[in-house]
Structure formats: C-alpha cells, structure tokens
Queue: 2 jobs
Job 1
Amino acid sequence: MKFKLLTAAFAALAITGSVRAAESPEVEARIDELISQMTLAEKVGQLNQLSGYGYNPDMVGQIRAGMVGSLLNEVDPEVVNALQREAVENTRLHIPLIFARDVIHGFKTMFPIPIGQSATWDPAIVEQGARIAADEASSAGIRWTFSPMVDIARDARWGRLAEGYGEDPCLTAAMGAAAVRGYQGDDLSRPNTMAACVKHFAGYGASEGGRDYNTTWIPEPLLRDVYLPPFKASADAGAASFMCSFNDINGVPSSGNTELLRGILRGEWGWDGLMVSDWNSIGEMVNHGFAADKRAAAALGASAGVDMDMEAHCYAAHLADLVEKGEVSVATIDELVRNVLRMKFRLGLFDNPYVDAASMRRFYAAESLEAARRAAEESAVLLVNNGILPLATTGKIFVTGPMADAAHDQSGTWSFDMEKSHTVTPLAALRDMYGADNIIYLPGLAYSRDRDTSKFDEAVAAARGADVILYFAGEEAVLSGEAHCRADISLPGAQTAYLRALKAAGKPIVTTVIAGRPLTLPEESGLSDALLFSFHPGTMGGPALANVISGRVAPGGKLPMSFPRMVGQVPMYYSVKNTGRPTYSMTLIDDIPLEAGQTSTGCTTYWLDAGLAPLYPFGYGLSYTTFEYSEPALASSEIAADGTLTVSCTVTNTGDRAGSDVAQLYVRDLVASLARPVKELKGFEKVTLAPGESRRLTFNIPASDLGFHNLKGEKVIEPGEFHLWVDNSSDCKKQPVKFSII
Ligand code: GLC
C-alpha cells in the first residue's frame, strides 16, 4: 500500500536522524551544539514532563539533576520563576523549562467553552479569545497551552465534545487554526504568547459508544476526510505542538502509532513541532495490551515519535537503559530532544526564561470582559421563539432554575483558574438590567441534578405574580468534559418536571439551557414559548444572555452539532450517506395500525419511534429577523480537477431588525467510487445586516476540496456531477444548483 511504504521509508529516515526539520539554520546549529554536549541522562530529562505544584525539595532536586524538560499546572509566577531559576542557573547546560497548563477557553477571563465558541461560526472570535487567554496565562508564566482540541465529535454522549468545535471538519478546521493564531500570534518568542498544542491526535472523538477513552475503528477514508483535516489546518497555521490521543485507532494506540505520528504528521505534512503524550498515555499502552510493560511502552513511544512523556515516567525510567542495550538508537533520542529544544528556542526561553508578572498581569481587563461577553452573545443559539423574544415586558419577571445563578458551573469544563467571584450570572445581569425590584427569584431546584420537587409549589405560586418566566436549566460543569459521558442526554434531575410544573402558572416561559453538550429537548421545546441554548458561556454569560433575551443583541448562533430528538439516534450528524434505502416517507410508531403487515411501514432507513431527522440540525439557529438567500450563481458550471469553483450568492435581511446570519455552502458528490455524503460543508461566512440590507457573498472552493480519500488512503478528485446549496442551515430544502468536475 502506497501509504505504508511511504511511512516505512520516513520512519527509517527519522531514526537515522537524517530528516531535518525546517528551522532557522542558527537555531538548528544551536540545537546541534547543545545535543553534542548532552549526556544521555540529560537528553532523557528533556523528554520528561511532570505535573508540579509548588517549590518543593523533590521537584527542585529533579530539576537540578536535569531530569525535567517541562512542568504543567504550576500557575504562580513567583514559583514558576523560582523553579525556572533552578533549571537555568543550577544545571550543567542551563536549559530552561517550559511551563504548561490546560488553558482551554480562557485563563481568568473565561470565554464560552470551545463548542460554544464554535456556535458563533466566527473564527475571529475564537482567535481573539485565544489571544486574551495567552495574554493572561503568560503573565502567570504559562507559555504552553494544551489547546485547541479539534477532535470531531458526532456523539453527544461523549463528554469531551465540550472542548472541541463540533461535528464538522470544515468548521472545526477554521476554528482550530484561529485558536492557533490567537495563542501564538505572529512571533512565538514574544513573552505574551503561548505555544498551541493541537489535540488529541487522532480520532479520539470516535470513541465507541460516546464513552471516553474507548476504542475507535476508523477506516482510512473516514480518518483522512473527517478526523484529520482540522489537525492539518492547525498544523498549517503553525501549531508548535501536538498531543497524541488516549485511544487506539483500529487497535493501535496513538501513543505508539508510527504511521500516524511519523508517517502522516511529519512525513506527509512535514510538521516539525513537539509531540507530547497525553497524561500517562505512553504508560497506558500496557493497559491497552499493546505493550508488555512500561519499558516496552517507552520504546514504542519513542520509536513512534512521541517527543515528551507527560506523567507516565516511562521515558525517565527506561529510555537510557533501552539506548544502552541498543533497543532504541541514540539517533532516535536525539531527534526527540531536537524537537523539544526547537520549541524552547521558538518560545524564546533561552534568551528570556523568566516571567515578568508585574508588568504583564492583565486579568479581567475591561476589553477582555467585553470580548468574552460578545463571544457569549454570539454563541447563543435561538431554537424556538413564538414571538415572546425579544422580551418586551415592563412588569415583573420570574427568574428560576438551577442555572440562573450558578457562578461555578456557568464556565463549564476545564476552568481550572476561573474565579467564580468574577462570573456574572443571568440572575445578576437581569437584576442589573431590569432593576432588582422587578425580578422575583426562586431557583426551584438547587442544582442541575437536583431531584427534590418540594420547592415547586412555592415557585409556581411566585411565578403567578410575574408577567413572564425566565427558566435557566441545563448541566452543571462536571457533567461534561473529560471522562464525563452520559448515556442519557436529557436534562438531568427533575428539571423537565419543574418545567411542566411551571406551566401551571399560566405565564409565558422563556427557557434558556446552559450545558456542555447537545441535549434531547423535545418536550422542553414544546412547553417553552422560546428556547435559547447556550453552551457554558463563561465569565460574562449572564450579561450576554440578558442582552439576547432583552433584544439589545440579536441571537446569531448556529448549532455546531446536530441535536438529536432522542439519544437512540446517536451518533447523529448531518453529513450522512444516502444509503440504498433513503427515506421519503415514514410511518411512525404511533401511526402503525394493529396487526400491520411486515412491510406496511415501508422499507427505508429511519427509526419507528424517532423518525430520521435530528430535533435541531447542524447549522440551525433563529434570529429576531429573517434572511433570504438568492439562488447561488456559478462562474462556471464546469471546473477542472485542478480548478476552482466560484460561487456567488446574495443574502438579504428581509425582517425589520438588524441581525446576523451564517451563509453555509454545502455540496454533494452525486456519484463516486465511494458512496459520498448527502451534504458536506465546504465554506461559510457570517454576515450582519441591517433591515432590508443585502450582501453579495463569493466563495472560492478549490476542486481539491471536493475530492476524497479512497480505501487505499489516496486522495482522489473524480469527474462527475455535484449539487450545491448556499443557505443558513444544513437541512436546506431548496433545489440545488449543479456543477461538474470535468
Ligand atoms: C488530560 C487530557 C488532556 C490534557 C492533559 C493535561 O487527561 O486528556 O486533554 O491536556 O491530560 O491535563
């Protein structure tokens, strides 16, 4: 197989050390000089990353012995400088440490969780958020973040979708690249930048059953067409590091996957950054049954090209012995060390190893909070609205629900350094906006998992005294994120029962769901006069939601993931195959007559008890105005395999309020050597228009973006007919325009 031959060749080259990465000759020369002076123990030390808290004798001893290359989780700049001083001043070669942290969606000023940032469909917002995070975290001495996570997620049960950008490779690629640019800026040696770390390479989101860390089975066309493109885009954006994933791909754990790490990432893509393992993922190859013991795991990781061992202690314990016994070559070690030193040079740490916290400290700057609020506003997705929103009331407002005043949970998962005292909740923002006297507040439920219904009657009675009910439901932060998967993705606790109870008050109900994943909300959609969805919105989530509810800001978010009607539909995504039995009509379970004949419901692909469609499709989101899209115009209806498809379309705000919408360009390859999806997103653009305003949009899609990978892993661009749509949701029902690759 072509792909395998390439990999083997590259792996051989890499191990002999004859593959040089692209770096300035001066830096490479300095790296060569350092490596030539290093003992084997010092080389192994550079490949060892530890989680450190505090300046303690044990950590100082390891640093002075040259046994540590990087520390994660220390965020006190004074301690960072003290530990760095040990490395720079009290070791033989004065090689600085890299200090790392999971700064996933903010350090102190928390932005919406990444899936929420993706709901903005605005890469500039993601880039700005990453820039602010880098500004804040670097002032604590953090120069390496384990972000962006660009794992494609098509299973809403998987808790880690919260950290990614959703189900689609085109959208995720744009967001991942934007995050890299934001973290790294245009000069990674500047002290207020952070090295990005693109993770989890690769295929982690395909974890079987949506259960974290589970096995993945990913045929090469799926790997290359869906799971890898966001990583390639992030590498092309200049990402300084990658992190390999916990999962096995088709039986091979990523931490020992030479084809993936050397063949594709470094061989095909020519990437020259630092590959760090996930936490103990090298050691976990023993649990996988892929390594007999940690010594074997160390050999597998090093040979596969994992440069740095995060907290498995496999390299520290075994690499020197493996080299001395000839089981791992010095050349391999030197190549791993080279990648680590290169990132340290790129970060400017040899010339500027210390953090000047006093001059850099910029937590919660007004402009940062403003940016975080705008991101949260843009990430809110309006799913249902019978006209109750924007809220016009001048009377009393009943605010209720477990997420109305949940300062801790509002920031969502991976908010280690968040201070909830700085979080502005919806309750606080509504009191500020409408006046505390006009807000009646009773939570009804104390937290999202609460099953105590004893407060319902009191709350319903209070609601009767208001003009409108604002119900804030959702998930606590702990119910999504790493290892936090759910087999039932409905509202936790008694939240749905509480909504039913609130109906008895006889008032309009605006339900806002604040959560870390798509939830199944069919009943809530029917019981609510308006349904607004906010993926954990961060520090300024309260003012953002108050601005959207009140109409000060129009909602413009679009779903980055399909919302299933019920969990049995999962995995649920828009870019499905047509199958041989596409569904044109359905007989649902309650409509089937008694003693119905075996074939009476037809023989096509759908669920008797759920139909076929999601509750809300990818790309969907309402506004306070309406938009129309002209029929797309093609510069040419035929393009060559090396050509570019140029598509123009006019979008018009046909309503009476300003608003934003996202023009989404989808294609379908009608006939190919592999069955192709019924739709694939190939471009998008967010526009903000005044009432009656029109904007002419033009998309240029290279024909190479219309190709796919065959079963041999080869990229092919086949001639044939395509359909194309430009609209504001993936469930666009318009007639497509047609073009061909000739
Ligand atoms: C965790 C996560 C990874 C994170 C790392 C360091 O287990 O999988 O995303 O960056 O460990 O905290």
Job 2
Amino acid sequence: MLGNFTYCNPTRLHFGEQALEQLAGELKHYGGRVLLAYGGGSIKKNGLYDKVTAILKACGKEVFEVPGVMPNPTVEKLYEGCRVARENNVDLILAVGGGSVCDYAKAVSVSAWCQEDPWDKYFLRMEDVSNPIIPVGCVLTMVGTGSEMNGGAVITHPAQKRKIGHVFGSNVMPRFSILDPTLTYTVPMEQMVAGIYDAFNHICEQYFSGEDDNTTDYIAEGLMRSLVASSRIALRQPENYEARSNIMWAATWALNTLLAMGKSTDWEVHMIGQSIGAYTNATHGMTLSAVSLAYYRYIMADGLAKFGRFAVNVWGIDPAGKSAEALAEAGLAAMERWMEELGVARNIRQLGVTEDMLEGIADGAFLMTGGYRTLTRNDVLNILKASM
Ligand code: NZQ
Ligand code: ZN
C-alpha cells in the first residue's frame, strides 16, 4: 500500500534542442550579480562557456566565476565558492556542468551565509538550513545524477576520508534547469556509461524495497526499460538524439523525488560507493557498478519476490519452470550482461581499491534501514571483499 505523502518539485525544466534560448527569460527573475560555477574546462572547449556568458552579458548581469569545480567536489572548493559568493553578494548561482557542478552550486547556496562550518553542520550533523539561501539555476551538460531536479549535494572531505550527501529540501532545489541533450554529445564515453549506470542504480535503490503492489514501482520499471533500450543505441551512436534525450529524461525522473513517494527506499549501494569514492576519488557511477552485483546477490534472498519481478518486468525473462531463486538470479545475470555491454566497472580493484583500504571503506559506509536487509559493518566488508 502506498504510504501518505506530499509531493512538490519546484524546479522548472526547459528540455530539448535549443533549450538554452530559455536562459535569458529565467535570468530576468534575479538580481544583477551572478556567480557562474563550472568544471575543469569542457565547457570552454565545446563553446558552451561563450554562449552562456554572451547571454549573461546581454541580460546585463555582472558575472563572478568559480571555475575548476572538480568531479566529487571537495570541502576546500566549497569554502572558496562561499567566499566568492559572499564577497560579491551574488543574487544567483548558475551551474554549468554535470552533477558535480550542480551539487556544488547547491552546497554554496546553503553555505555562503552559514554562520558555522558548513561541512560540520550539513554533512556531519545533517542539520537543516537556518540561514538565507542563494537561488540556483543549472545548465546540465552530463546526465546521470538527477542533481538538476533534486536537493542533493554531495561533498568530499579528502582529509577525513568521507564523501557525504545531504538531501536538502525543495527550497534548495534548482529554481530552473536547462536540459539540452545535444550538450551531452561531447561527454567522454566512459562518463556517459557511468552516468547511465548511476541513473539506473538510482532507480534500483528506490525499487528494491517494500513488498506491496504500488504504482511507483511500475514507473520505476518503465524508466529502467527505457534506459536499457536507449543506452544500447547510444553506445553505437552517441549522437543519436532520440537515445540521448530519452536517457536524459529518464535520468532526471530517476532521482527527482518521485520514485520515493509512498514507499521505503534502500540507498546502500550509494553508501558503499560514496565511501569508495572518498578513498579513491573514482567516478561516482563506477563506484556503484563495481559493488552492485555483489550487493544484490548478497541480499537477494531477502527480497526474492521483487528480484523475480525485476527479472520478468525489466529484463523480459520467462518465469516458466524457474524456481523463485533461479528467476531472481536470471534477472541479475541479465543486468550483469548489460553492464558488460556498457563497459562499466565490475570490481573495486580496478578503481584503485587495495586490501588495506577495506576496513576504512566499511567504516565510512552508512548502514541504511529501508531496503530488504539492514547490513552490519561485517556484511559491508564481505560485500567489499566479494567486489575485489
Ligand atoms: O569538469 P569538466 O571539464 O566540465 O568535465 C566533466 C568531468 O570531468 C565532464 N563533462 C561534463 N559534461 C561534459 C563533460 N565533458 C565533455 N562534455 C560535456 N558536455 O564529465 C566529468 C564528470 O562530471 P561530473 O559532474 O563529476 O559527473 P556527474 O554528473 O556524474 O556528477 C558526479 C557527482 O554527483 C554526485 C556524485 O557523488 C559526484 O560527486 N551525485 C549527486 C547526486 C544528487 N545530487 O542527487 C546523486 C548521485 O548519486 C551522486 O552521488
Ligand atoms: Zn548516484
């Protein structure tokens, strides 16, 4: 049975080719001082930086920049963005990039006027925001995280070996996001497949929980099927608009709060993946793919009916003549074959994990209670060993 919920997602999306033309209209709603945040240079190479700055200039904005937002943005980088935002009293933070830049913009948004250390307050103590928030807008260039339409911000503290996400409320979600699938054509293949697997796993995290018959799970199955079908086309034809636009749209819905409505959710793969990221700085989607199969096989017996349903409804496996266990395993085997096609990481050694890191990674992985099994630290260690 669906639990009770209130659903509101305030992010206005502009989707499609030439969606960037909508940026000027959005900028009218904000004051004249804009903080432009972007990554390590891809937007300069592909010409997007010039287009965005031309629009900002035409709208009469004064622009302050934080370039060099790295994948898995760090707490030091967060402090830098807070200084620039505060010193220039900016009215809007415009993120132009992937999930890292969008997450970063939200982290700066809540931290610039925070009286305490934002790492301690938001990421260690998980407290709510109690200071003014700077509005955020996004121009998305890389698909996967859903950051363009959610309140998530994941920050890494390299010295403390912790990578932690805070899911902020709807007041922190981007006010608008521009989603033009053609802006993702220049994403390297390795990042494209990591993003696709990230989005797929967001759906898994919300699907593998609960035993009831609810609409949210049917939506999840449809999104997973769309991602699998479109990814197979995008692998062969990276500039296939239909495939890239389907992937972009599915990834946004995979993590914009909809799939969590009225049901419990798991997120253990992400907790383990984030801890691996804190130790290795590996690409987020790859940290998930590298532990997923070991994790799902570890917990399969606790959610057998749902794993069987996954096999039939997502992978089209014929249940006739199969035991519940065999059907569930056939679904995971089909997922494994698809992961091979994508070429995503399937062990953590290839991400740079060594034996001496395993205890620390297990310490850094939060133990979630919403999935089919609440792990112990020892379970996490077993899964990590099985993922080597
Ligand atoms: O930095 P640049 O030069 O822009 O290059 C980036 C980066 O190297 C490149 N890229 C992005 N768009 C491109 C492009 N290269 C060429 N052409 C383009 N159009 O791709 C690389 C990866 O970018 P990044 O933003 O790091 O990737 P992603 O979107 O996967 O974001 C990962 C971050 O998001 C967090 C992850 O933990 C990680 O820190 N997540 C955020 C979530 C959320 N807000 O809800 C949920 C996720 O589970 C995830 O944890
Ligand atoms: Zn993710």
